[in-house]
Amino acid sequence: MTYTIKFGTDGWRGVIAEDYTFDNVRRAAQGVATYFARNHQARERGMVIGYDHRFASENFAAAAAQVLAANAIPVLLTEIGTPTPVISYAAIANKTAGAINITASHNPGTDNGFKVRNEFGGAVPPDVLKEIEALIPATSDVQRAPLRDALAAGSIKKFDASAAYLEHLPDMIDVAPLKNADLRIVHDPMWGVGSGWLKRILDGDKTTVTEIHSGRNPIFPDMQRPEPIPPNTARLQETIPAARAHAGFLTDGDADRVGFVAENGRFINQLEVYALLAYYLLEIRGWRGPIVKTISTTSMLNKLGKIYNVPVYETGVGFKFIAPKMLETNAMIGGEESGGFAVRGHMPERDGILMSLFLLDLMVKLDKTPTQLLDHLFSIVGAHYYDRIDTPFPPERNAAVRAHIAAQKPTDIAGIPVVNINTLDGFRYEMNDGGWLLIRFSGTEPLIRVYTETTHGDKVQEILQAGLKLAGLK
User: Fold this and answer.
1) 385-470 — its CATH code?
2) 293 close to 312: Cβ distance less than 8 angstroms
3) Which alpha helices (H) appear in 118-218, and where do they start and end?
């Protein structure tokens, strides 16, 4: 029986050698080739293919390139493992029809993945992913060209994707004040393709960047997975105060997400980071325009939207929803709870490298430590508290559990009245303090996620436990 390839929240992901095989990668590439040749002049414009530091990623990328070349689509193949935002920007800079990126982002080392990007460097919308899925053939119908022949003929060309990204970077931020700020920064690229990038951009003057978990190691030792949230942040949280550093940044396996650690080792969570970034653009940079957020991220953005008189749009989880909404509304910023954020003038794609620089610029412009930045933010929007529990969950139980949750209509959670139940993506119980509880099924892994944000710091765990009970998990 032929394995069915399905695109989740951000691409197709699978276990290497089980369902993520060379044959299946070629099948996915054939679906992409057929769609982009029909709809986006890919045979004239070509496509970019890049990859991360995971096991055999360069080989899976080469397999995808063979398929595109056999379909008469010229390929620009990255020379080395490259950050997702750099690959995505290469599609814009080279005016290609789009890009394929071989990465499983933050998944465990057992996995790899396959992302599709459009000509704007952003995730393709859900309706297009459905079309691509429908075009994925059986293995016997895949076209492929010998790699050596395609390279010799020039239908596949290897290139350095970093040049265009670095040339564009000054359009987004002036790094000279950051390099001269005399700061000690620690960067944890989590063994991923972000290795060396902040050091390359910031080193050379007074500011210094030290790396941990640098280089390529596909088993991702010293962490559960290359995801920039606790407990994977423990080493960086210990390192910052010990090194007397001013701040620390994490980028995930493909460097499209950012994590932020304060000078005292406190992890500043993803919702707090999104609010800080929005404040930075609105107050420090003077930008104006819509904010796009997923259902799982912070209500602090709604408060900032009211203060600065900018609209806030909400989408389902995943950049396949955020990117189209950003393009539709010419949004100033778009982001999600996972720590991925994109900004106008750059591309509708997450960029952990640029967001690290923005956070550092906020520190420099306000002359505040990360802890002081958070205190300053809370003085404007009030204190907010967040946490999340991920529980392994077999996908075949989804329908039954959804029905179980849908049948329940709680009037309060942890004693806080429920004023609305939002089913845009999962089940979000909105409470009268502006907080919320969300139960949803992961689009990339066999997990059920329970999240909360509340203004009651003493209620966080009680709310999460109520969510697990609603889902029938306790």
Assistant:
1) 3.30.310.50
2) yes
3) 126-135, 147-153, 162-172, 176-179, 197-202
